[in-house]
Amino acid sequence: DKTVVLITGCSSGIGLSLAVRLASDPDRTYKVYATMRNLDKKERLLECVKGLHKETLDILQMDVTDRQSILTVRGRIVEKRLDILVCNAGVGLMGPLEVQTLDSMRRILEVNLLGTIQTIQTFLPEMKAQGQGRILVTGSSGGLHGFPFNEVYCASKFAVEGACESLAILLQHFNIHVSLIECGPVNTDFLVNLQKVELGDTSLQEVDSHTLSLYEKYLQHCDSIFQNAAQDTEDIVKVFLDAIQSPTPAFRYFTSSVMSPFTQMKITEPDGSQCIRAMSELIFSAEEQ
Ligand code: NAD
Description:
By secondary structure, the chain is of the alpha/beta class. It has ten helices and nine strands.
């Protein structure tokens, strides 16, 4: 029997690469349900899996914020079983907090936090009944320590950490392993897809000049980090495979050590001041006059 895997957010990035890797596994071990919010975007995935047998891949529409679409997908799993659920869909939100609208903040929390929780919730009863399963979640360094101008994104990713850790404690009693794959910067469409306040945006006219100059520095830092230190999705997929193939998966996997000093500092310097100072220096001090 094939291992049945469902992945969210497969039209691009990490989700797409993972779907391609698992669906094209030489041993045909996996049956992949690659889901995406907008099926018009399935060409890229189809392109990457060209020539594959249909038996390893099915592409289905699923918006993690739309419960009905999740239920519909659940009904279309022909194996009537889910071995591995990968909650990967997510979006970013970047800019001074003062200019974020309630709607845009809600949207991020709805996709990243409630979308993840609602997806897990939907498949939980059958996984519990099966007495086995794995839940893998694409985590972020933004879920482990703060980044300026990413308050709501980090809040959503911190929240995902809390939800997963809480679930992991319970689900071990059902032989269900929960794992977070903690990513630093990855070369994907993330920066294109995220909701970002651009420097020329009219909403910034009301923002004070000090914040604006810091935001400008942040954006430069962000560009250079993504240009110089971002991982490729293949590197992330390898870590997913480690977790999938391990008989006793860990709760957290780190894909890169780039940001780990900050994660370390949270433990070694629990009062937080050193971590906050170091992050500020890293991002803002380079061009400080
Ligand atoms: P991406 O933008 O290429 O992929 C995100 C996918 O999620 C897209 O296919 C998008 O269509 C999908 N999506 C968005 N809203 C959705 C919804 N409501 N329902 C279903 N799908 C939806 O970027 P990515 O880097 O591949 O992102 C995947 C995950 O990795 C996200 O959770 C992101 O937060 C996380 N992550 C990314 C990075 C990075 O630097 N790229 C770093 C850390 C964590």
